Amino acid sequence: xVQLVESGGGLVQAGxxxxxxxxxxxxxxxxxxxxxxRQAPRKQRELVASMSSGGTTKYAxxxxxxxxxxxxxxxxxxxxxMSSLKPDDTATYYCRIGRPTTITTIWxxxxxxxxxxxxxx
Length: 121
Description:
Number of helices: 0
Structural class: mainly beta
Helix content: under 10%
Number of strands: 11
Largest sheet: 7 strands, mixed
Shape: globular
Strand content: over 45%
Distance between the termini: 39 Å
Radius of gyration: 14 Å
């Protein structure tokens, strides 16, 4: 199993920036895809960004142009730089690992504890 630990969340004013990170350990398989999900109160958890070990990135429309995902494969860590933050970005952010296929990503069912991001208006 893979263990995931998210960190870096905090309180930020609207329009500000924040970087969060996720460190993976354990039985890390390759190739893989690592993704950032978020869950706001009373809403479903949604995928906001993902990046494969080969460098392919994907973003949700709601964050496109504002968020940037990156990886350090040597450190088994994935980052999310969030800019031009909005109150709607307030959520608990989680990372996830999965296996890529030619069509979709087969995501793991395990999660870390998440890191809280709060944007003040």
